[in-house]
Write a structure and sequence with these properties.
By secondary structure, the chain is α+β, with helices and mostly antiparallel strands. The chain has five helices and ten strands, in the order βαββαβαβαββαβββ.
Length: 220
């Protein structure tokens, strides 16, 4: 059966849709869109779909992924267009691609996530060079898989953090940011979190879910 991978954004008020409610919203939108969905067996058939990784409530994302199983192929542009018409504001499919039959499930594929985190400092901080060194030390000690200081302004900073996709507090960007603020010696709070991408890190390579799909894609 054909399987289509959909990349979508979760922004604005949609940040406050829980993962369980997101599943219901996507099921309802796919049905209303008239897509030829493959359904589960039993007394209560449901569309066969799978998400990559649950997103914490209140967190925005540029790159969430959903696999939908269909009973027959549909032009990818139609899949995107029909879903956009049915989804609420803040949930916007941005691309679609066919998935090879033997490709691993999304949850098995993704093992890391990249976040953009904005923090506000509550005390004096060292200069940029020292902050960057302390961030490297934090990563070396296992606080994150990778990290980068993207911007530094009066009393605030914007960071890129790569974290495991699962594993308790080590996978929670707000918790990691709290630990990082302590390590930086500044104190403060997390002002905002956005997931930029989901990743597969393997043998030193960083892959995104698109890199294991076939060439046919649609974007919008």
């Amino acid at each position: 059966m054909p399987r289509v991978r959909i990349r979508f954004r979760k922004q604005g008020d949609a940040r406050f849709i829980s993962h369980l409610d997101l599943v219901r919203v996507m099921e309802r939108a796919a049905r209303r869109a008239g897509l030829p969905l493959r359904l589960s067996q039993g007394y209560n058939p449901r569309p066969k779909m799978a998400f990559a990784s649950a997103l914490a409530l209140g967190t925005a994302s540029d790159a969430e992924y959903l696999d939908l199983e269909l009973v027959r192929p549909v032009p990818l542009e139609d899949v995107l267009g029909r879903l956009r018409e049915q989804l609420p504001s803040g949930l916007r499919p941005s691309a679609a691609a066919w998935v090879p039959e033997q490709a691993p499930a999304l949850m098995a594929l993704v093992n890391a996530a990249e976040y953009e985190v904005e923090v506000e400092f509550s005390g004096p901080c060292p200069g940029r060079a020292e902050l960057e060194q302390r961030l490297r030390d934090f990563v070396t000690r296992g606080g994150a898989l990778d990290g980068e200081l993207l911007a530094l302004a009066e009393g605030r900073a914007r960071l890129r953090l790569v974290l495991p996709a699962s594993g308790g507090d080590r996978a929670r960007p707000r918790r990691v940011a709290e630990s990082l603020l302590s390590a930086l010696g500044c104190g403060g709070r997390t002002a905002g979190v956005r997931r930029r991408e989901l990743l597969r890190i393997e043998g030193g390579r960083r892959l995104v879910p698109w890199e294991l799909v076939q060439g046919g894609r649609a974007r919008g």
